[in-house]
Amino acid sequence: MICRLVKRVLVGIAALAWVSVSVNAARWDHLTGEQLEQKLTEKFTQGQYSPKGADSCLMCHRKNEVVMAIFDGAHGSMNNKQSPMAGLQCEACHGPQGKHNKGGKEPMIAFGEESKLSASAQNSVCQGCHNDPKQMAWHTSTHNLEEIACADCHNVHSAKDPALDKLTINDTCTSCHSKEKADMNKRSSHPLKWDQMTCIDCHSPHGSMNESALNKPTINDTCYSCHAEKRGPVLWEHAPVTENCVTCHNPHGSVNDDLLNSRAPQLCQQCHAPDGHASRVVPEPGMDAFGGGKSCLNCHNKIHGSNHPSGSLFQR
Ligand code: HEC
Ligand code: HEC
Ligand code: HEC
Ligand code: HEC
Ligand code: HEC
Ligand code: HEC
Ligand code: HEC
Ligand code: HEC
Ligand code: HEC
Ligand code: HEC
């Protein structure tokens, strides 16, 4: 009985707290993203920072575990002079408090999926401190042009930023890239699903000057960085191999062996006519040289090129 009463009181308090919070939140909930941006810009020019820094924020926000976790990460460190916590503290990112503490009359800069601010507005806060040349490619990157926010990948209110941990990078990327997620779980793939490799082994998350934001100038250079033996030089080159590995392979994964886009003979017949030469070849008894086994590769097995003096047909 007592138990139930206590519970009812608790529920009552919780409901009250919720009401007051949502009333406060509603003060700026009706604003459009643009109006909000304008209001926040005004606030910035007034520059009314709280004299007590984080302490004044924590009066209301300390119960929120997400908020408190900032002290476990790089931005919560007091030792680093460049760190927000050694300067304007919370307001270095969320902007001046102004009258926000007066019954929530004024909005703060918010980040992440629920923020009404444009990605570029959010990102400009981060870039205020993170403006080293390494980030230059960001401006022309697809991610920037597609309005992806720094906070879509990074989590600053945490001890472990998921974008910086090898075991969670792939999850971060595939939360948006569902096609690559499906591919990497197919039968043949790079060891991405075991997190032994990550998307950033090939791609630069902040963009690069190369196509598809690759780390290396070309697709083939990307592949050679690990598959050096495919670089050659070879005596007899197979033109598509030196041109572009992804003509035949899907780097993210495939239902076919060896990450192949399709299987032989179809793979080869995109370029080589299926005519004539079939009749000139005598398949071994019981084996259909063109459909069964490794098909064309039964004979042309040095498909990446040959170093044999008489290997011009990639047979040896
Ligand atoms: C008097 C209490 C109070 C103080 C002090 C306070 N806040 Fe808030 N804050 C709130 C309330 C209430 C909300 C709206 C409810 C919510 O979303 O949690 C809120 C929301 C926020 C949000 C989310 C905004 C959004 O649009 O989703 C951020 C960020 C924030 N506060 C940061 C700060 C910072 C930084 C400080 C210190 C400079 C601070 N707050 C001081 C009460 C306070
Ligand atoms: C380095 C910039 C930075 C600093 C410093 C910072 N925040 Fe945040 N804050 C963020 C980002 C980014 C988010 C969105 C969530 C995330 O990515 O971690 C956020 C989210 C929040 C939220 C919303 C949390 C929720 O439950 O969704 C509140 C409230 C908040 N911060 C308050 C604070 C307070 C209080 C401080 C100081 C103790 C602080 N922040 C310091 C960047 C910062
Ligand atoms: C007031 C300056 C300041 C602002 C604003 C700021 N940062 Fe930082 N950030 C730092 C400093 C200082 C470090 C630590 C660098 C170091 O240790 O070399 C850091 C480190 C980082 C790191 C690496 C973290 C790690 O654990 O090594 C990431 C990622 C990062 N910041 C992202 C962000 C994002 C995203 C935002 C915007 C929401 C942001 N920062 C806003 C100053 C800032
Ligand atoms: C698509 C996801 C993604 C976005 C968007 C993103 N980052 Fe990163 N960021 C990463 C990953 C992944 C790493 C780890 C890179 C590594 O280990 O080589 C990283 C590393 C960092 C670091 C650590 C230092 C460094 O350069 O290695 C900082 C600082 C940083 N990012 C800041 C930012 C800022 C500022 C923005 C927004 C302008 C941003 N990031 C946008 C994924 C992202
Ligand atoms: C918040 C969603 C989101 C996250 C998280 C995200 N991306 Fe993207 N990414 C996009 C969008 C949207 C595009 C543009 C449309 C497309 O190509 O799918 C894009 C494009 C790309 C491209 C093509 C770039 C080009 O110039 O053609 C690459 C590569 C890429 N992302 C890699 C990554 C990697 C690696 C990560 C993790 C570190 C990541 N993305 C995380 C949304 C995201
Ligand atoms: C082994 C290297 C490698 C790895 C690992 C890799 N990619 Fe790629 N990715 C590429 C290459 C090469 C291209 C260009 C393909 C092309 O032009 O057809 C590409 C293209 C892309 C594109 C652009 C696709 C399009 O249709 O334009 C996206 C998005 C992408 N990758 C996301 C990812 C994500 C997410 C991961 C991690 C799950 C990842 N990649 C891992 C090599 C890689
Ligand atoms: C960061 C290193 C790295 C890069 C870059 C890389 N690979 Fe790989 N690749 C691997 C590893 C590791 C394996 C797995 C080897 C194993 O399982 O024995 C592999 C396996 C393969 C396989 C065989 C897959 C199978 O099912 O057995 C093919 C085909 C392949 N890679 C093609 C490519 C192509 C094409 C590129 C360029 C787009 C590329 N790789 C870039 C590391 C890399
Ligand atoms: C003309 C199509 C084609 C092109 C282009 C191509 N490959 Fe392959 N690759 C194949 C085929 C077919 C196999 C399977 C070989 C077999 O079954 O004997 C294969 C297998 C592989 C393997 C796994 C077996 C091995 O030989 O190590 C790797 C790794 C590989 N390719 C990397 C590359 C790289 C790197 C490039 C670009 C330099 C490339 N491939 C270009 C058709 C191609
Ligand atoms: C993207 C197009 C393309 C694909 C796919 C392709 N090839 Fe080729 N292949 C070529 C080109 C171009 C040449 C050079 C032809 C020339 O020099 O006349 C060539 C040359 C050859 C040669 C040497 C014959 C000659 O005339 O020099 C053989 C054998 C061969 N390919 C077999 C294959 C096999 C087997 C496959 C499938 C595993 C395959 N090719 C896939 C484009 C392709
Ligand atoms: C049983 C072995 C064998 C198989 C299987 C085979 N080839 Fe050949 N291929 C040869 C021989 C032998 C030659 C040389 C024929 C000649 O000089 O008359 C040749 C020649 C070629 C040439 C050079 C141009 C030409 O027509 O002379 C190409 C291209 C070629 N093959 C592609 C393919 C493709 C594509 C497949 C699969 C659809 C395939 N081969 C399957 C043995 C084979």
Automatic annotation (TrEMBL):
Transmembrane segments: none annotated. Residues 90-163 form the Cytochrome c-type protein NrfB-like domain. GO terms for molecular function: oxidoreductase activity. SUPFAM superfamilies: Multiheme cytochromes. It comes from the Bacteria. Keywords: Signal. The keyword Methyltransferase does not apply. Gene3D superfamilies: Cytochrome C3 (3.90.10.10), Flavocytochrome C3, Chain A (1.10.1130.10). Residues 191-231, 238-275 form the Doubled CXXCH motif domain. Residues 1-25 form the signal peptide. This is Cytochrome C family protein. It comes from Shewanella woodyi (strain ATCC 51908 / MS32).
